[in-house]
Design brief:
Length: 649
């Protein structure tokens, strides 16, 4: 176990603060006692069937679950449409003219949509996609900034049964290209640009590079972020302006009746190999879990103004910006830009301006706010807030306490929600009106979710690996095009039990404390980055002979990328080259993967059989005494590296 991990555990073992649900919150909450836990415990499938009944089905399912490990089918025989559930079904009631979406761009431009308006826009775009020849089962890439059209495009795809594959706008042309190829997407939806810290991100330009020469890409749809935006090259026959497409036709589009197990979307996420995995989610089970968790974890009611600060390029944006909250008829807030633009009070100004009642963000953001100082939130009226959430990485108790006091005014419960791209929805979390919280613990599994902690042999333990012991409705149905990898990655550690890749501890109250990844996946500022992906990007540079990438603890981002590189014969190390390598990783993957430290060394520490010893590199990167070096071919190599790292760091 590495040093930072054991320090974390020490902190957790001494954490004995407990916070009961505030009385006022509990009194009005959807769930205020343990009834759902009892019901789900008595009959898990019946419990999930009751949850599924909250959705609008065109045809009821015949069978709740069929489970042939590792393949689950939920609600088979049932037919539904996600956009119908998120939009149409609100139109005959009081929600029709209620605000569905409040959007603010980074420069301060604003747009709002009622449910009726959002429905109209989604139908018009869905019809336009159909006219372009997109039909059931066709994959559509989405590469957009955080603008309303991102949600509209996703919903339009679901309306016509075309699985979307959203790619985070910060990813590089090469990352986008790899995903378009893997998904064989026929259409890409992008924008001329988006705003970030005052600058324009030229998404269309990056898209052109990404799809260059891909003959299966028939159409590129371009949203104009605003009039007078960045100039773009529109290629005849392939490229279309979004606003021109939606203006054609009568804008009507009936929702497709999709089978419960039809694919809803593919979302790529990093794993332990160089190639990201296309996580496949289907329709009925996914929406069931996302709606059940949104309703109970965030205690969403119609008069709430709900703001999840994630990007729609991540699973959090899929489940908890778009699908869950809209299916419940809530009012969602979407913000395009950075939290420190034009100043460090931007988030709190948004909370005040729109009367946000529920805020869901990441520990890395909370730690940044803490560092920026208490005065920023103190300047704004945030009394509208009633519930706070966190997701993406373990939250340190200090950040949790700060969040509670300075953002929540010591009045709002905090829900620390553990889940993954693969789980589709929240898995371990408090229900804020029913479960007491402890700073740093995601508390207990959601009703109907069965988890435990296992060791390598599959024996239950207090501390070891988190394990999910029975299928859940939102679970991934596979990795796109790679069944073998699906079996190996998630289902081969133990028999019929899901392995999420996280270490965890369970305390005497049965509370889970998630300790972080136990594989070669880093979590940098809540973003998953595979060390192998960064290594492949580095060795792809002509000056690099070998590269080893490890994570080191970082106060703000949780982890930072540290790279150790040896150069090809005859290449000289220089600070320019280091800059170039960092930029190269940015070009290959995206800015989020750029190494914080790059150390160039004549050799990397290897065993006599030639394996790079990453464990020792982690010791170097975290400034610890080196662990056992006796298996090294040449122990002097790592000693020199350590001296060099400490000299440069
Ligand atoms: C939703 C999301 C998944 C990985 C997961 C964990 C880590 C997420 C928490 C957390 C501790 C949490 N999807 N993680 N939530 N660790 N406490 N509440 O983040 O696929 O991008 O990442 O994130 O390591 O395996 S993800």
């Amino acid at each position: 176990m590495d040093g930072s991990r054991s320090r974390e555990i020490e902190v957790l073992l001494t954490e004995d603060r407990t916070f009961d649900p505030p009385q006022a919150f509990r009194a009005a909450a959807h769930v205020s006692d343990d009834t759902p836990y009892v019901e789900a415990g008595a009959d898990r499938e019946a419990f999930w069937a009751v949850q599924a009944e909250q959705l609008d089905w065109f045809r009821r399912w015949d069978n709740v679950l069929s489970w042939e490990p590792p393949f689950a089918r939920w609600f088979e025989g049932g037919q539904l449409n996600v956009s119908h559930n998120c939009l149409d079904r609100h139109l005959d009631g009081p929600r029709a003219d209620a605000t569905a979406l409040i959007w603010e761009g980074e420069p301060g431009d604003k747009r709002t949509y009622t449910y009726r308006e959002l429905h109209r826009e989604v139908c018009a775009f869905a019809a336009a996609l159909k006219r372009l020849g997109v039909g059931r089962g066709d994959r559509v890439g989405i590469y957009l900034p955080m603008i309303p059209e991102a949600a509209i495009a996703m919903l339009a795809c679901t309306r016509i049964g075309a699985p979307h594959s959203v790619v985070f706008g910060g990813f590089s042309a090469k990352s986008l290209r790899d995903r378009m190829i893997d998904a064989q997407a026929r259409v890409l939806i992008t924008a001329d640009g988006g705003y970030r810290r005052g600058g324009i991100v030229p998404l269309k330009q990056t898209s052109d590079e990404a799809v260059d020469g891909l003959e299966f890409v028939d159409h590129v749809v371009v949203v104009r972020r605003e009039e007078g935006g960045p100039p773009v090259d529109m290629r005849d026959g392939r490229d279309h302006w979004y606003h021109e497409l939606v203006a054609e036709g009568d804008g009507a589009c009936e929702p497709e009746a999709m089978e419960a197990e039809d694919i809803l979307y593919i979302l790529y996420t990093s794993g332990t190999t160089g190639k990201p995995k296309g996580i496949v989610h289907t329709t009925g089970g996914y929406l069931t879990q996302v709606v059940a968790t949104t309703k109970w974890v965030f205690d969403v009611k119609h008069d709430d103004v709900y703001w999840c600060t994630a990007d729609v390029g991540w699973v959090t944006g899929h489940s908890y910006i778009v699908y869950g909250p809209l299916a419940l008829g809530a009012t969602i807030v979407m913000y395009e830009g950075a939290p420190d633009y034009p100043d460090r009070g931007r988030f709190w100004k948004l909370v005040e301006d729109y009367g946000v009642t529920i805020l869901y963000t990441a520990p890395t953001a909370i730690r940044a706010f803490m560092k920026w100082g208490d005065e920023w939130p103190a300047r704004y009226d945030m009394s509208s807030l009633r519930l706070l959430g966190t997701v993406g990485e373990p939250i340190n108790p200090e950040a949790w306490m700060w969040y509670q006091e300075h953002i929540g005014g010591d009045r709002c419960p905090i829900v620390d929600t553990w889940w993954q791209t693969e789980t589709g929805g929240i898995m371990i979390t408090p229900l804020p009106g029913a479960v007491s919280t402890k700073p740093g613990s995601a508390t207990i599994p959601f009703p109907g979710v069965e988890a435990t902690i296992l060791d390598n042999d599959g024996q239950e333990a207090d501390s070891g690996y988190l394990a999910i012991t029975s299928p859940w409705p939102g679970m991934l149905r596979g990795i796109w095009g790679d069944e073998q990898r699906y079996r190996e990655t998630y289902w081969s550690k133990w028999d019929g039990v899901y392995f999420p890749g996280d270490g965890a501890r369970r305390d005497e109250d049965g509370y889970y404390w998630i300790l972080g990844r136990v594989d070669d996946v880093l979590n940098v500022a809540g973003h998953r980055i595979g060390t192998m992906e960064v290594e492949s990007a580095l060795v792809d540079h002509p000056a690099v002979a070998e590269a080893a990438v490890v994570g080191r603890a970082d106060e703000l981002k949780g982890q930072a990328v540290a790279a150790f590189v040896s150069l090809v014969e005859g290449t000289e190390s220089s600070s320019d080259l280091i800059q170039e390598l960092r930029q190269h990783v940015g070009n290959e993957i995206g800015a989020i993967a750029k190494p914080a430290d790059i150390v160039i060394s004549a050799e990397l520490p290897k065993t006599r059989s030639g394996k790079i010893m990453r464990r020792l590199l982690r010791d170097v990167a975290e400034g610890r005494a080196l662990g056992d070096t006796t298996t090294l071919a040449d122990p002097a190599v790592v000693e020199q590296l350590k001296a060099k790292y400490e000299g440069e760091a």
